[in-house]
Design a protein that fits this description.
- The protein is built from 6 helices and no strands.
- By secondary structure, it is mainly α.
- The protein has 2 domains: 66 residues, lambda repressor-like DNA-binding domains (434 Repressor (Amino-terminal Domain)), CATH 1.10.260; 30 residues.
- It is globular.
Length: 97
């Protein structure tokens, strides 16, 4: 399974857990239902920004959609840790302005 496929699988799993449909998710992130279908079928590329929008709409942390930590390699764990640190720093910076 590719990393992209894992992200899509995680999005679908969270949607099911939250009772979201393609249509309801599309409305929450202001895109069309066909766009969600294309994203979830792998026909359209997922950007980090789009995954963050989806995570906010599903009310789950973005890292939950990216993958499960137990399946990460050491390098991937480092990247995830750096992402979390960056996000925390950016949040502090934005709130200090």
């Amino acid at each position: 399974m590719t990393y992209k496929e894992k992200i899509i699988e995680n999005i679908k799993k969270c949607m099911q857990e939250k009772g979201e449909t393609n249509t309801s998710l599309a409305l929450k992130i202001n895109v069309s239902q066909p766009m969600i279908s294309q994203l979830l079928s792998g026909k359209n590329s997922l950007t980090v920004e789009r995954v963050e929008e989806i995570s906010a709409a599903l009310q789950v942390p973005p890292e939950k959609l990216f993958c499960t930590e137990t399946s990460l390699t050491t390098e991937e764990k480092i990247v995830l840790d750096n992402y979390r640190l960056f996000k925390k720093c950016m949040h502090k910076y934005i709130n200090s302005r």
